[in-house]
Amino acid sequence: MIKKQNQVFFTSLVLSDAAMLVLAWLCAFEVRFQLRFIPVFHGVPRIADYLYMLPVILAAFPIAAKMGGLYRPLGKRRLQAEIFYAWKTVTFLVIFTFFATFFLRAFSYSRVVAVYFWIIGTFLVALSHAILWKVLIKFREKEEYLKETLIIGAGEQGRNLAQKIDFHPELGFLVMGFIAIGKENEGAASANGYPILGGLDNLNSVIHQYGIDQVFITLPANLYGEIDRIIEKLSEEMVDIKVVPDFIQYMRLNSGIEEFEGMPIINLVASPIFGWNWVFKRWFDLAFSLMAIAALSPLLILIALMIKLTSRGPVFYSQERMGLDGKRFMMIKFRSMRIGAEKETGPVFSEKNDSRATPVGGILRRFSLDELPQLFNVLRGEMSLVGPRPERPVFVEDFKRKIPRYMQRHKVKAGMTGWAQVNDWRGNTSIDKRIEYDLYYIEHWSPAFDLKILFQTVGRVFFSKHAY
Q: Which residue of 120, 210, 364, 369 has the fewest C-beta atoms within 10 A of its own C-beta?
């Protein structure tokens, strides 16, 4: 029921936004070539040529909306927030759309139209959301469309549920209060601002008194023995019954609930990058690594020559690392150490002013230029542009015994740069902090987050005080 109610509002928003974007594109064409606030020097093109771009815009829109956070939970959003998320989404859409036109050499689209589309699109999408939001509020204010809701269990799980319901007013749920179980909130009159209406003995009378339409059962695992008693009492009532299982303490990484042949399955640990997310991230890695290799090829050749001319040994150095799902691969770097540097020390982290580094190698490591050949690891699919930095298996064996949840960082591909690195947790720094940042990245992954990290990489990683 919750999912279906969300789908109605979500579908209305998507269709409305798509219509607004089509209108914005057509308006941008008219403003540019009919109103002509800016002179037109090369004649007026056919509108049919611009209509060909509409499928491209609509195809790119879902990706741009996800990156722009357009369909985040509504909560108590204000108009300024709607404008901000609409602006972010349309900005990404303009970038994607005109990146696509790079391959359409047969026709050149006006950059002025793009600017008009950016401005008009932002305004119309924000207006669309504001109007639908107002309509929804008016609709939900009508008492017959609200579902009076009772939460059984005033513990952490029940309070979290009430908070999430508050954050989704589009569902039309009206929380009337809690039924406390056992010694939950003993002596308290309310929880999360909602009244505690009684205990299990009062359940049926509370349902009648407040006209309850649906009940959520949110019990801690140690009170599951009360469920039979609750179900027996509710069997006398005409209410919808939903159970929220108490697995919060076990849910770690992108947890959620799926359905398989009618059987609910709870994910406690899962990767966020699957399905279309995997397709997008792989496409992103391929496109940007190819462009980076092409753009940096003169620098790569120059570095290779400097290494060859100033020290004995190969240009490249391959080292075994652990990546996605614990699979091992050979990570490529420009050689920055003397041959046989670890014969005496064994596997150790590099240190500042490391005596094992060659003169050129010290410079390469200072500016992280020795990492550039990993673009070829990205092309081969062994790494990603953004992700947790891969460690050597010998270190992984040690860390996984000492650091809780360490192995969960291998639920995504290892990256050339990551959230820990742009926050200067790299090299010989706190492993615990690096894991904290790596897991945060995995839990909050999005295409926009990847772009943010890439943009920050140049300034924060290439000139990091811990790069040596």
A: 210
pLDDT in tens, 391-423: 888 888 888 888 877 888 888 899 999 998 888
pLDDT digits (tens, 9 = 90+) for 414-462: 999 999 888 887 766 778 888 888 888 988 888 888 888 988 887 665 5
Sign of CA dihedral 46, 49, 51, 53: negative
Mean pLDDT across the stretch 121-131? Answer: 88
CA gyration radius for the chain?
A: 28
Compute the distance between CA of residue 280 and CA of residue 274 in angstroms, rounded to an integer.
10
Q: Which residue has the higher pLDDT, 73 or 14?
A: 14
Distance CA 125, CA 330 (A): 47
Residue ranges with strand state E in 129-287: 147-152, 173-179, 190-191, 194-198, 214-217, 240-243, 256-260, 263-267
Burial of 180 (0-12, 13-18, 19+ CB in 10 A): buried
In this prediction, residue 275 carries a pLDDT of: 72
Higher per-residue confidence, 67 vs 179: 179
* Domain parsing of the chain, residue ranges: 2-141, 146-249, 276-460
Which position has the higher pLDDT, 353 or 185?
Answer: 185
Q: Is the distance from CB of 173 to CB of 180 less than 8 angstroms?
A: no
| b/e 389-423 (16+ beta carbons within 10 angstroms → b) | bbbbeeebeebeeeeeebbbbbbbbbbbbbbbbbb
Q: Is the dihedral of CA 341, 343, 345, 347 positive or negative?
A: positive
**CA 230 to centroid of chain Cα atoms:** 38
Give the closest residue to 64 by CA, choosing from 40, 93, 36.
93
Which H or E element spans position 112?
helix 111-141
The dotted CATH code for 146-249 is 3.40.50.620
Q: HSE on the CB side for 103, CA within 13 Å?
A: 6
Element (H, E) at 415: strand 415-417
